[in-house]
Each structure stands twice: as structure tokens, then as C-alpha cells.
Amino acid sequence: NDNQPFVEEVCINDIINSHSTPFYLYSQKIIKDTFNNLKKNLSGEILYAVKANSNQSILKLLKNCGAGADVVSVGELERCINAGFDSNKIIFEGVGKSEEDIEFAIKQNIKLINVESFDELTLINNIGKKMNKKIKIGIRLNPDIDSHTLEKISTGNKTDKFGIELNQLDKIILQIKSSPNVSLDGISCHIGSQIHNINTFKKVFETMKKTASLILSKKINLKYVDLGGGFGVNYEENQNEFDIKGLGELIKSIFSNEPYEISFEPGRYLVAKAGILITKILTLKQNGGINFLITDAGMQTFLRPAMYHASHKILPFNQIGKKTTYTIAGPICESSDIIIKDIKLPYQTKDNFLIICDVGAYGSVMSSNYN
Ligand code: PLP
Fold first, then answer.
1. 144 Cβ contact partners less than 8 Å away, ≥ 6 residues apart
2. Are 171 and 179 spatial neighbours (Cβ–Cβ below 8 Å)?
3. Ligand 1 centroid to 69 CA: how many Å?
4. Using the 8-state DSSP alphabet, how is residue 180 labeled?
5. What distance lies between CA 300 and its chain's CA centroid?
6. How far is the CA of 334 from the CAs of 254, 279, 305, 316, in angstroms?
7. CA 368 to ligand 1 centroid distance, Å
8. Tens-digit pLDDT profile for residues 3-36
9. In the chain, how many H helices and how many E strands?
10. Which residues form the catalytic set?
């Protein structure tokens, strides 16, 4: 039947009865194709932002494609090691790292630990002294550039908690110069997620180039400039895809013969479109004139709608029947547990299945034990 939904060659109907719902299902092909296209267009290392989806098979797949990794916790770092990532291609960032986290990362000989505060620099230098090692660090900068994205996923304004402000650069370099157990090898920045406008990246890239030149002029052998992730994904139908080709051209026009390696930290862009979530309708009910479909997936399975008011396309398995307006809600005891409001679907009944689309990024990783 032509109307049956497939993921690659797998007919979802064929597996739905042997798996309990809700479950995530991923396409390797989409991840591979997206990675290869990104690699073709961007001249630089791609360090997959593991936070978007740390599924062990996805990590292995991306590692086999040639990706490095950007991790923000020891848990993510362990997963990358298990997946076989070359430790030389792993960077560790995050605004709060414990002494144990840093020690663990140092023992793995990773590419860089990105420092986000003066206190953290002191801590890393002290740990380096204790271990009798020189630790390779980067500075995560806060360039104070508005990403024009949702407030909850903006990270590059000076009032955000992330990075070190540019006007504190001289001060942190002074501290680095008097810290014998660290060497400044890189700088990085990431101003937010879901950025669609190339001009926003232009501002970031120009600022990073200027900052790198300034650091090089101080006789510091800067090896890496990491330009972050945040490449936008369109969750709605009929919207333009993010202009990766344009981004690639922009990079070439700004960075030509620089003495450092360029890298990126995309998460969402690589995996968002590769995942779907299959859920079963548990109950139909009417309250206040609203037709609720209560599904077994909810905010415990997929948090983005409740947390960010994200809207995801829904595909019904049952295509016949009169179009009806529904609000789809999860089973959790919270009124915010709504997947989508007011969508039109063919008439649905209890035990029908629905597909929530484009959930590969920030989907299963944000699921919880709630309720
Ligand atoms: N790098 C850092 C430091 C981040 O905080 C994030 C996301 O929050 C990313 C990379 C990945 O962002 P995205 O998934 O939008 O590409």
C-alpha cells in the first residue's frame, strides 16, 4: 500500500506490533547524507554536538563518517569513547565542570577543554600541576551577538551565562600566561540554536577572526578556532532549508590563509530530520469543546513542545475518515503536556498510531522519569 509510512526500506507497520510504544526510530541514511553534505560544504572539522542525541548507534555512525565530538559532560565523553571516537577529536565544554569531570577528561587526552570562567582556569591549572601535565585549553568566548532565536536557546548575549566576555579577553590571557600548567590552543563560541540568518553567522565569524588575530599578535600559538553550531532546521513544511552552501562560501570568504584549524559544533542540523517518534492513542475525550487525543508519548518522552512551544508535524497511520480538529496531549499530570493544538487529522480512534516527525535532535536525550 503506497500510503504506508516507511523509514528507509522498513515499513513502520511491520515493526509497530513487535515494539511497545512510544519509541524513537532513526534513519542512518539521513544522518549520513546530512553529514556528508555538511562536510562537502564547510571547510573544517565537524565536531558533533553530542547533546543533540547521544544514542550509541548514532555516535558510532557519525564517528565512522569522520566526525569528532563536542561533549558537555563526563557521561557524553564516556559514550564517545565507547563509540570509538579518536580522543584527539573530542572537545569538552560546558559552563559548570567539577574537578572530577576535568580530571577524567585530562586522562582521556582529549583535544581541548574549553574554559568558561576564571575560576575554572584556576582549577584546571591546579589539576594540571597535581598531575604534572600541561593541559590544552580553549577559551569559550561570549561575543555578545544576538542570535535572534528563542530566548531559551540563546547563548551568546552578554547577559547569558555562557563564555567569557570579549572585554575580559586581555585579563584571561594574563591569567593564562601566569598559569604554567595550561596552554591556550583554541578559542570557541556558540551563540545559540536554530539560527537561520547567514548574516548572524557573518558577525560571529568576523568577530572570531579578529579575536584570533589579536591572540596571535600576542605571540600565542593559537591552533584551533571553533565557530560553534546552531545551524537552523525547518520543522514546518514549505520553508526554505538552511543555506549550507551559502555558509560554506561565507567561511571561505572570511577565513582564507589563517594559520589555525577551523571547526564547527552542529548538533540539531545533523540529526533532527533523521528521527520519528511513534505513539499510540490511549483515549479520546472532549473537554470544553476540544477533541483531545491522549497519547502514550508526552512531555516525559518528548519535551520540546512543552518546553519550547515547538511545533512538530504529525502523520496519522489512519488516513481515512472525516477531517477533525484535535489537540494531542500526553498522559502526564500537567496541563503543559500538550504535543500540538488544533490540528486537522482524519478521524482517529483509540489504539491508532501517530508519528511525530523530525524528533531526532533534543528528543530522546531530554526524556525523563517524570510520572
Ligand atoms: N555547541 C554548544 C556549546 C552548545 O551549547 C550547543 C547547543 O546548545 C551546540 C553546540 C549545538 O547546537 P545546535 O544543536 O543548535 O547545532
1. 156, 157, 158, 165, 166
2. no
3. 11
4. T
5. 19
6. 49, 18, 13, 24
7. 20
8. 788 899 888 988 998 899 999 999 999 999 999 9
9. 11, 18
10. 333
